[in-house]
Each structure stands twice: as structure tokens, then as C-alpha cells.
Write a structure and sequence with these properties.
Blueprint: E1 3-5, E2 11-13, E3 18-19, E4 30-31, H1 38-46, H2 51-57, H3 63-80
Antiparallel strand pairs: 1-2, 3-4
Length: about 80
């Protein structure tokens, strides 16, 4: 399993990268520690933008967090098709 590093170097599983909190954007799934919805990343990629463009636009999201979130989403899709 891949992991992402948080600022304090505590290892966090990729499933912890996206959180839902009713107090943050009404419970929309966001990157932990930000108000950036995970859907924004998917919309950027779907629109033909690169990961780097997304990261430039949303600097509070780390590359590691974005990749971990995409890997987790991929695993969920694959698991649903089995």
C-alpha cells in the first residue's frame, strides 16, 4: 500500500487524504487540511489539464495527496467491477 507524508512526517494511508466534514463545504469530500474538493482534481483532469496545473492552482494540496487520492479512487472503481 502506498502512503503519503504529512508535514510532521507521520505516515498517513491514502484513505486518510480525503475527508468529509459537515462543517467544511457542507460535507463535500475535500483534501485533508484544505477546503479543496476532491472533485476539483477530477474536473481538472477531465478538462484536459495536467496534475501540475491543478497543483499550481491549489497549492494547499500536495502532489503526494493528489496522487494518493487518485490511487484510492482507482482502487474503489476496480473493486466495484470485480
Amino acid at each position: 500500500m502506498l502512503y503519503s507524508r504529512k508535514r510532521n512526517d507521520v505516515m498517513t494511508s491514502k484513505v486518510d487524504v480525503i475527508v468529509r466534514d459537515p462543517g467544511i463545504l457542507g460535507g463535500t469530500p475535500v483534501f485533508r487540511g484544505t477546503r479543496v474538493p476532491f472533485k476539483n482534481l477530477l474536473d481538472y483532469l477531465e478538462g484536459g489539464h495536467t496534475l501540475d496545473e491543478f497543483l499550481d492552482e491549489f497549492p494547499s494540496v500536495s502532489r503526494e495527496a493528489a496522487i494518493a487520492a487518485l490511487e484510492h479512487a482507482k482502487e474503489l472503481v476496480i473493486a466495484q467491477t470485480r
